[in-house]
Amino acid sequence: MVHAHDMNQPMKTRYRVFRRGWGTYYCEDLVTKKQVSLKTRDRGEAFRLVAARNENEDAPAFSLHLARVYWKAGDPAAAKRTWQHVMDEIPKLKQGETRHRWFTAIKDKALDSIRNRVVLETQAEHFLKVLEDGGVSTNIYLRRIHNFALDINWLPWPVLPKKRWPGIKFKEKRGITLEEHQAIVEREQNPERKAFYQLAWDLGASQSDIACLEAGNIDWENHVISFARKKTGSIAIMRFDDELAEILRTLPNVGPLFPYLRTVRAGDRATEFHQRCVGLKIKGVSLHSYRYAWAERAKIAGYPERFAQEALGHNSKAVHRAYARKAKVELPPLSEYERQRKQFTVLPAPTLASA
Questions:
Q1: What percent of the chain has pLDDT over 70?
Q2: How far is it, in rounded angstroms, from Cα 353 to Cα 344?
Q3: What is the bridge-based pairing of β-strands 2-3 and 15-19?
Q4: The whole model's pTM is what?
Q5: Contacts within 8 Å (CB) and 24+ apart, 42-47
Q6: Between these two residues, 7 and 25, which has the higher pLDDT value?
Q7: Which residues, in sequence order, are CB contacts of 88 under 8 Å at separation 6+?
Q8: Could you tell me the pLDDT band of residue 262, with boundaries at 50, 70 and 90?
Q9: pLDDT band at residue 344, thresholds of 50, 70 and 90?
Q10: pLDDT tens-digit profile of 43-85?
Q11: How many whole angstroms separate alpha carbon 213 and alpha carbon 205?
Q12: CB contact set of 349 (below 8 Å; sequence gap of 6+)
């Protein structure tokens, strides 16, 4: 090992330069003894890199200020670019429901304290204030806004390191009970919406998938409904019984099954459902609770997990949660299960992507 420290390097510094035998310069931390390659064979460049580390060690605030000056010089707009500018750009890259969710998210009042703050002048305490004032959604979208600014080089370094972001804690969700579902259906006066809730209970599919079902998705000969999932594009094939068949016969036999509800945004369908729950004093459920309920019912009935995964999607949180819990399950005898299977025509299993 050939050492290359000389009079140009101060005696009382944390970092020193040395050169390996093959000519590459390295930096050694004299406190931790850690050595890292400077990835250069140029002596002058090596000493400049280490000098910058030592300057940052002696005066970090000044070094940070200097870094901002250089960054602004390379990007003139950076001196005036605020977080509102960042937030305005993100929805332009989105489409459909995702774009609408972004427009809603950036209206969050908790973000008001940083809207007009210059991105390069943002400190950790500014983000912590936003997170303190906001909720789970604020935490999720502020992370995405922050990462977007980093990804397109509008931010030279993280405002908050990954380990310093508060953990995201969702409220416990539950499946809707049979009694609650029946109360909602009995009170519903609109035939289309009533059938929509009934299909949600029997199929467990997402509300968007149900709302977009068409008559052509129904195979009456085999009592099967098949459709492409909106979220993944994978094909779901589900058998329906005589009870559900009676409900399907009340819907249009040509075109969309739910001609009105398919034109309504998912958020508005969720709001309408919430209003029904409020009227019946039902708390803690949403339209998504039908998926949790379906998974929980499948678990209790002894429905094989792989079938539940194909019905709701292999990565469905509803399936993972229901089948991971210690629920009371009464499994039917294998012989009985085999006899039941013989009563049905076995359909070829589709190739399903993760949902």
A1: 80
A2: 25
A3: antiparallel
A4: 0.58
A5: 43/4, 43/19, 46/4, 46/17, 46/19, 47/8, 47/9, 47/17
A6: 25
A7: 106
A8: very high
A9: low
A10: 888 888 888 777 666 555 545 555 555 555 556 787 889 999 9
A11: 11
A12: 310
Higher pLDDT, 325 or 205: 205
Rounded to whole angstroms, how far apart are CA atoms 181 and 282? Answer: 10
Tell the burial category of 275 from Cβ atoms under 10 Å away from its Cβ (0-12, 13-18, 19+). Answer: exposed
Tell me the β-bridge partners of 238.
Answer: 225
The residue extents of the domains of the chain are 2-58, 78-164, 178-342
Task: Report the distance separating Cα 78 and Cα 214, nearest Å.
Answer: 50
Q: How many CB atoms lie within 10 A of CB 172?
A: 7
Residue found by looking up tokens 């009870």 in the block: 243
User: How does pLDDT run across 229-245, given as a tens digit for each residue?
Assistant: 887 777 888 888 899 99
pLDDT of residue 352: 44
Among 183-187, 202-206, 248-252, 310-314, the range scoring the smallest mean pLDDT is 310-314
Reported confidence tier of residue 201, pLDDT bands at 50, 70, 90: very high
**Res. 2: pLDDT tops 60:** no
Domain 178-342, architecture per CATH: Orthogonal Bundle (1.10)
Q: What is the pLDDT at residue 345? A: 47
Pairing assessment for the beta strands 218-219 and 2-3 based on DSSP bridges: unpaired
Residues 6+ apart with CB under 8 A from 224: 218, 237, 238, 239, 240, 347
Tokens (6 digits) for 348: 């070829």
